[in-house]
Amino acid sequence: MPLDDRTRELALAAAVEAARRASEYLRAALGHARSIRHKGGNVMDLVTEHDLTSEEMIRRHLRGAFPSWGLFCEEGGAEGPTDPRWIVDPLDGTTNFAHGLPIFAVAIALEHEGEIDLAVVDAPMLGAVWTARAGRGATRDGRPLHVSRTDRLDESLLATGFPYDLKISPDNNFAEFARVQLRAQAVRRCGSAVLDLAWLAEGSFDGYWEKKLKPWDWATGVLLISEAGGRVSGGNGGPSSIYGETLVASNGLIHEELLSALASA
Asked: Does 133 share its domain with 157?
């Protein structure tokens, strides 16, 4: 059953407040990561004590506000019902954070009836908050967002990332990166899928692609970009799912050209 407008307003307010609290904590913690471990023994996939503390802060706040709703968190996994449920990335850009690089964010999305209904991204060191509600548009710090109007790939600034198993898997995005780098104006790799997608929604990037993502990596971005007038698809150009692994997103104008460049790799 659809959520009524009042419930959605309260949910957005709860998500904004949860993200704000976690972001304040992470801002103070930057440069003080004492416990760093590797998930599953993968030296590329880091988690710090601050990821865990941020996630617990968010979980407690959202549980207090909507105790009957489920949660799906990067570190703690799934708990409670699957609909509606919060999808939480408590610290996207952990490797940046662990090295003192201030490019990281907190991301909270609400999934309802198979769709992302609202999204909040809070970047502590940038002082920026992006929000979106399905059918209500997207904003940064209250300012409405719209994707860029660049209509040629060779004039486009793109973003991408690489999977954590890049050293052992041939499906590592290297070939795609090399091919698209030659076709686009430039390609950036900032280390935070959440922020790359938020920047695309506001027009700073024109396109983005990445492989082997997790739901919390792009749940917020799917809604931000869609509500800002962009396009999101799977790697073959078909419908996207946050439970898929390949994402292609753009301002819509360069989407087919970007898909073609990726396919040629």
From this structure: no
Q: Count Cβ atoms below 10 Å from residue 162 Cβ, excluding itself.
A: 18
DSSP state of 204: S
pLDDT score recorded for residue 109 = 98
One domain, residues 112 and 237: no
Q: Which residues contact 246 (CB under 8 A, 6 or more apart)?
A: 209, 210, 211, 212, 213, 234, 235
53 and 73 co-located in one domain: yes
H or E stretch covering 59: helix 49-65
Question: Which domain range does residue 215 map to?
Answer: 153-264
Number of domains in the chain: 2
184 CB-contact burial (10 Å; exposed 0-12 / middle 13-18 / buried 19+): buried
How many C-beta atoms surround the C-beta of residue 137 within 10 A?
15
In the prediction, which pLDDT does 4 show? 94
- Sheet with 231-233, side-by-side order of all strands: 186-188, 157-160, 207-210, 247-250, 231-233
Whether 133 and 167 share a structural domain = no
**This prediction's pTM:** 0.94
Sort residue 195 into left (φ over 0), alpha (ψ -120 to 50) or beta. alpha
Successive 10-residue mean pLDDT values, the chain, 265 residues: 91 98 96 61 63 96 98 96 97 94 98 97 98 98 98 98 90 96 97 98 98 96 98 94 93 98 95
d(CA 218, CA 198): 10
Instruction: Provide the terminal-to-terminal Cα distance of the chain, rounded to the nearest Å.
Output: 43
- At 31 the pLDDT is 84
